[in-house]
Amino acid sequence: MSRKIPSLADFRRIVIKVGSSLLVDAAAGRPREQWLAALAQDIATLHQEKRDILVVSSGAIALGRAVLKLPRGALKLEDSQAAAAVGQIALARIWAESLGKHGITAGQILVTLGDTEERRRYLNARETIDKLLEWKAVPVINENDTVATNEIRYGDNDRLAARVATMMSADLLVLLSDIDGLYDAPPGSGKDARLVPLVERITPEIEAMAGASGSELSRGGMMTKIEAGKIATSAGTHMVIASGHPDHALSAIAKGARCTWFLTPANPVTARKKWIAGSLEPRGVLFIDGGAVAALKRGKSLLPAGVKRVDGEFQRGDAVVIRDLDGAEIGRGLVAYDAADAGKVMGLSSPEAKNILGFEGRVEIVHRDDLVMSGGQETA
Ligand code: GLU
User: Fold this and answer.
1) What atom of ligand 1 comes closest to residue 58's alpha carbon?
2) pTM score, two decimals?
3) 144 CB near ligand 1 (under 6 Å)
4) Which of 137, 178, 289, 366 can pair with 302 through a Cys bridge, CB separation 3.0 to 4.6 Å?
5) How far apart are CA 246 and CA 259, in angstroms?
6) CA nearest 92: which of 51, 41, 147, 31?
């Protein structure tokens, strides 16, 4: 069965990766401040909507190059390290200023490969970033290019962003780049290439679309984006590749701009549960009897039979609180029916509920995968 394309509003913790060419006008040798102002505004909106936002920003080398007026062409490693030392200061400043205009505090994090690959350092980095998020700051992350050498560097911020996203259990990674998504044929292959809106699994065919690395047809950067997609989706993080070119690139995605979504097939449960347990505003309450409370504690789903009262106006998929008949909170979950249907089937056996709803299949009001017990009540 094919899965639905998600919407930005579905996500609670979002990592946004911004490519160098978006941030830096190489010809003019300066940052694209108007573009950044528009992006900062989009970030502020998500931030106000209680989303945790992390930025992975490239641009240190490109900005340093501009400031130092280095000639065009490939830089030697030591040159790019030194350019990054100059550019990173400018980069941090423009992020701090752009976000600061919206009352958002930015915090700079520079990581090396070892910081995400070594467990102890990984845990340390995670704690620091967690603290910033707790303080409602926006971490602005880049590779520590000044000390990263060829052997021990990411080299590209696509994979770095994917690592950060999984490290922080983000539920979405947005890659804003200069291409609007994955096309089904490499450019110049003579085929009429079409954008692929949804990738449910990264198969060898999908990799072939990105162009084998090193091949003449390989498109700049698409391979590392697919690599990023593998890292992200195998750890419960969805990913979207979208064009960063329009001003307000994030709200463009929210409004349905062309882009490619990569859905996570593996264990979305954990990320989803973290999201449910987090700061969703519950839209209603389901009051359940003692038998249902015991069943939930054993790790079962919530069936209509155990529900005794339904409060609130909610739609299918909304978050609801589950309480016992004394009103104590048992858990939270995403409800499978709207309030009217939930009211119709409450107290009924599963076959009766099926009759009323007129469909075959599962009748859980809140499926186990969409349910989080409050405060360690689970025994299963
Ligand atoms: N870390 C590099 C920089 O800030 C960018 C790497 C990339 O563009 O992927 O300049």
Assistant:
1) 4
2) 0.71
3) no
4) 366
5) 13
6) 31
